[in-house]
Amino acid sequence: MNRSPANIVRRAALPLLAIVISLAGSGNAASCRPTPQDEMGPFYRPDAPLRSSVGSGYLLRGTVRSAADCRPVNGARIELWLVGPQGQYDDAHRATVITDGKGRYRFTSNVPPPFYSRPPHIHIRVTAPGFDELVTQHYPRPGTRKGSFDLGMPPLPTR
């Protein structure tokens, strides 16, 4: 058995190389975890109007993907609601957007203000055939005028 330093390094590197190759073959699956659920809150109302803008000053965009295989979810229904500039929830600050063929969405609103002791946030509810409902919230970084929020949806269990 050859115990030269080069041979020892080669043998030690083989298991690491196998791990790297297996991870590379999995594509983006590791980055498509289900988005954590968050509270719906008491101000949700169904049937928000289909529109991509409820104001100006803040742009939120992202991609909805299957948490199982990272494929984009085409036609996902995203309901969004937030506090308006006057500090109240109202119908003028509710919207529904539908993802495009690549799972992308785009939503423009006012910069969300804090709501009582809560930090600025946008409520999000996502539904799509074959997937569990996702209820979460986007928390903009202070001082920003745009945000990116990709959403991972867990598929429904197969029977």
Concise synopsis of the structure shown:
With 159 residues, the protein is of the alpha/beta class. Helices cover 13% and strands 31% of the residues.
Describe it.
- Helix content is about 15%, strand content about 30%.
- It is built from one helix and eight strands.
- It has one domain: Protocatechuate 3,4-Dioxygenase, subunit A.
- The termini are far apart.
What are the main properties of this structure?
Intradiol_RC_Dioxygenase; 1 helix; alpha/beta; four-stranded antiparallel sheet; single chain; four-stranded mixed sheet; Protocatechuate 3,4-Dioxygenase, subunit A; 8 strands
SS-derived structural category = alpha/beta
The overall number of domains is 1
Tell me the helix content. Answer: 10-25%
Number of helices: 1
Q: How would a textbook summarize the main sheet?
A: 4 strands, mixed
Looking at the structure, the CATH topology is Protocatechuate 3,4-Dioxygenase, subunit A
Beta-strand content bin: 25-35%
Question: Any idea of the CATH class?
Answer: Mainly Beta
Would you identify the regions where 5 or more consecutive residues have pLDDT less than 50? 6-30
* CATH superfamily heading: Aromatic compound dioxygenase
Using the alpha-carbon principal axes, give the shape.
globular
> What is the architecture at the second tier of CATH?
Sandwich
Order of helices and strands: HEEEEEEEE
Domain Intradiol ring-cleavage dioxygenases: 54-139
GO molecular function: dioxygenase activity
Protein name: Intradiol ring-cleavage dioxygenase
InterPro entries: Intradiol_dOase_C, Intradiol_dOase_core, Intradiol_RC_Dioxygenase
